[in-house]
Request: fold
Amino acid sequence: KNEVEQSPQNLTAQEGEFITINCSYSVGISALHWLQQHPGGGIVSLFMLSSGKKKHGRLIATINIQEKHSSLHITASHPRDSAVYICAVKLGNQFYFGTGTSLTVIP
Amino acid sequence: NAGVMQNPRHLVRRRGQEARLRCSPMKGHSHVYWYRQLPEEGLKFMVYLQKENIIDESGMPKERFSAEFPKEGPSILRIQQVVRGDSAAYFCASSLNHASWRMNTEAFFGQGTRLTVV
Reply:
């Protein structure tokens, strides 16, 4: 069983829709990251969370430490948001990654 | 300040050849982490290096794979006698020091090297 589980695996949305991606983890962590990976491109860190909620533009990330759960929300989605979103948790030296959620936003 | 630089971006090797993947960390960063992303799978930790030292190689296969981070120059991930199953994207990340890696607000990743073994 993977230490980090994401859902959904694939998501297609119409432009303008509100999007939620979920991440559950099974280990005690020091921090959780949301990463964005574009097709053929590298990885960009969107957020690092250890508690509560963070907002950056149209992106909002929340974490519930007790429930070992985090969500990434995208408001007013746009085709340029199309990417793979990866949840990663830090434990010691290592990151443990979810398999990613592939988001496609249709104009 | 350039980000983490990896090269080449794409590498094609025949079975049995050697693959050398390079990672130049961000300026001032002395800690490097290598990750592998197999097709349809998530990223997996391979190895953590400081300058001239391997700190944690628990995620790296025992045979054919090696990594180094010399005093001068980039970190190198070396795969000898490549096989088809080595085809993957290999990502490098860097941090200023390990404390900042554990607590850092950002994870600095490179663009990755996509290795294809034919």
User: Anything to note?
Assistant: The radius of gyration of chain A is 13 Å. The longest strand of chain A covers residues 83-91. DSSP finds no helices and eleven strands in chain A. The mean pLDDT of chain A is 89.
